[in-house]
Each structure stands twice: as structure tokens, then as C-alpha cells.
Amino acid sequence: MTDLMNSLAYLHGQPTATGRLKSKPEDFFVSETLDFTPAGHGEHFLVRIRKIGENTKYVANELAKACGVTSRDVSWAGLKDRHAVTEQWFSVHLPGQPDPDLSEFVATHEGVDAILETARHDKKLRPGDLIGNHFKLVITDFDGDDAIETRLANIRDQGVPNYFGSQRFGRNGNNVTSARDWGQDKFRVRDKSKRSFYLSAARSYLFNQVLSARIEKQLCHTPILGDLLIDDQENTKLVDDIATAQEKLTKRHWQISGPMTGDNALPTQGEAQQFEQDIVDTEPHLLAVIRSNRMRHERRPLLLYPQDMQWQRDGNTLEVEFALPAGCFATAVMREVIEDLSDGDADAHTDQ
Fold first, then answer.
1. Does residue 342 belong to any structural domain of this protein?
2. Which end of the chain, N or C, is less packed with Cβ atoms under 10 Å?
3. What is the pLDDT of residues 211-267, one digit of tens each?
4. Same-domain status, 209 and 82
5. Is residue 281 part of a domain?
């Protein structure tokens, strides 16, 4: 199985400990945190569902049937892995209708474990309505020595590469392969969801390549002239003085950013722009897809700092718990912890 992550650099060195991630859905738990409090009134019925081994779109379609509406009337804030236990919010457009009774929906769908919470809101859920996700991961068949304690502490304190995980790229990296073929006009993509997947894969792949190159050059924590720093509100600031930039990075209010490539020129300048351009130019067919679809250039932090991180080892089991901002991948954290001996099929069972 091809894994586009294999060639990427490690921030803390390649792990020597081994184990299995996602041996079963219960070993990978994720719970969403919305960035708003439901209004308590409105046309949209919000429901928080705990599901096991089911993907987001399937549950959304079945929820629509249970509520007597079409699938387009159900929305969500973020896609979630199928091979996991997830606590996820959905919204159902029910203007002028009472809250539905979902007891039969739960009873007749094995993968729907429970309805955890309901509320009314004046807007439907949209991508971007999440502030983050909380993870609890169990690594089975763990084989490692006491050095794992130091490694986990370093990950907590120094962060990990903010890579897009392999699930972004599809089984065997097929989304990137398809994006390259699309960029060579080998076929046309009319399906909107496929267009979205291929474009997302193309931009994510290029970001990962730039980030990996910076780690290899030991420039992940060190700014260069022309870099763009980014803060938690996605404000950016050009680096025109290294000492000033380094001081900002020390306080962690700012981070060095990498490119989510768009159809316009890279917004970095000088040395930083040349560094990024040399890498993205190695993928002309991915660039062709991005430019022909007029994607807007964005920036993404190079590093990811797990919040509230804690861990516990019990024999050949290691349990790791942390929270991440929306859009970040728990697998990017775990890649720095262990070499995953799983066969990779779990990542195929994902909404991405």
C-alpha cells in the first residue's frame, strides 16, 4: 500500500517504538467542540450523535429519513473517520416543526450508539463551525522502552509537523494521482465532491512537501526573511527582521506558516518565497489544477501543538489523549509517537 506520508521528514526523529493504531473503532475516539453556543430557538434542529464505525454522510442520510426530510436538509460541521467512535453534531432544517423523536432511529441503526444532546439554532451547521476536536487514542501491541516518556513530553512542548494526514489523500494516494491526471487533461471532473477531494489533496500534498523540506533544513522553528507568520485568528505578518520574528515565535502567539497554494503568486517574499516556489514548481500538473479552478491562496501553521496532552502506559497498551484545532490531524501527532504496524486499511474507511 502506497502511503504519501512515508517520505516526509520527522520533527523528533523517526520513532523506534511500534504499535497498532485503530485496531478497532473503540481505540480511536474523537469528540467535536463547536465554536458557538446553540441559540435555543430557530428553524434548525441540532443533534449530537455518538456513532461507531459509520461515516458522516451515511448517518446524515439516515437521519434525514428519520426526520422526514431530504438529505440536503441535513448538514454537519466536519467529516469524521468511519473507523472510530465519534461524537458529532448534525443540523436538520425543520421550520415550524417540533423536535423529532429519534428513539427508533437509534434502535434500528447499529452504528448509531446514542443521542447525546439536542438543541435549536437559528443557523444550519457549516464547515468551519468547529473550534476543535478532542481525541483519546489507544495504541495496542505497543513495543517501546522508557524513552517514550521523553518523546511524548517533547511532542507536547515542541509540537509536531502540522501535516495533512494520509486520509486526506485517499486509498493509496489516489486523490493526488487523480489530481495530476486531471491537470494533464486526461479526464474531466464533473462531480462536485470529487473536484473538492482532488483539489484539497493537491493543495495538501504541496503543503506537506514544503513543510517536510523545512524540517530537513531545520527551518521549522526558525524564520527566514520573507516568511509569513500567522496567529490563531489567521492574521499574517511579513518577516523583515529575524530577531523580531524569533521573539514573536518564542511567545507562541505567532507561528511560521506554509502555503495552501492558490492561483496567484505566493504571498511570501524574497528567500522564503523562493524556497516555497522551488518546491511547488516540481508539481506542475497539481499547480495546473489549482490555478484552473482559481483557488484562493491561504496559509497554514507549520507546527501543531497538542493541547491538554496526557498519556498512560499499561503493559503493551499506550493511551494518549489531547485536543487539536479544527482542520488538524491526530494521525500527524501519532506519526511522531510510534511506527504504526497496522495495515493501513483503517484509513481507507474515512469520509476523506
1. no
2. N
3. 999 999 999 999 999 999 999 899 999 999 999 999 999 988 899 999 999 999 999
4. no
5. yes
> Does residue 172 share a domain with residue 100?
no
81 is catalytic: yes
Q: Three cell numbers at 108?
A: 434500528
Half-sphere exposure of 203 (CA within 13 A, CB side): 22
How many domains does the chain contain in total? 2
Same domain, residue pair 187 and 106? no
C-alpha span between 283 and 290 (Å, rounded): 11
The CATH number given to whatever domain includes residue 83 is 3.30.2350.20
Domain boundaries, position 183 = 164-301
To the nearest whole number, what is the mean pLDDT of the chain? 94
Same domain for 110 and 214, yes or no, is: no
Does the pTM surpass 0.70? The reply is: yes
**Exactly one of 81, 129, 340, 347 is catalytic; which is it?**
81
Q: Which residue has the cell 468511519?
A: 82
Tell whether the model's pLDDT for residue 350 goes beyond 80.
no
Task: Indicate the residue among 104, 127, 150 that finishes a domain.
Answer: 127
Characterise 55 by phi-psi region: left (phi > 0), alpha (psi -120 to 50), beta (else). Answer: beta
Give the mean model confidence (pLDDT) for residues 304-329: 96
Q: How far apart are CA 91 and CA 42, in angstroms?
A: 11
Q: Both 282 and 235 in a single domain?
A: yes
Nearest to 89 by CA among 162, 16, 147, 35: 35
For the segment 81-122, what is each residue's pLDDT rounded down to a tens digit? 889 999 999 999 999 999 999 999 999 999 999 999 999 999
pLDDT band at 127 (very low <50, low <70, confident <90, very high): confident
